[in-house]
Amino acid sequence: QVQLVESGGGLVQPGGSLRLSCAASGFIFSNYAMGWFRQAPGKEREFVASFNWAGLHTQYAGSVKGRFTIFRDYTKNTMYLQMNSVKPEDTAVYYCARGRQGDATISLGDYDAWGQGTQVTVSS
Fold it and tell me: I need a surface site. Which of 52, 103, 118, 122 has the fewest CB within 10 A?
């Protein structure tokens, strides 16, 4: 049974940092692309970052490029999202997702398993 469990969300001040984690189980972690998405209140879920099965090809949304870093620890079957210099517009529920295959993509439809989400609130 595929499971993705996010953690690490919370309240952070503008300009601060936060690290999200996504613990994966029930599948061979190294065979799949993985991604982070987010959904703010009243908005559609949007792409944040992804990488391919080998972790060598990464993609970022323009709004987070240079501030967020996606990476994975194959020994722990865990993916991370390091969020630096956060802004109020980063406030959202963040979801991790497993790609349908090994290539990194930015489309929601290319992901077939999702976590329950973790809330990130950026506010002073």
Answer: 103
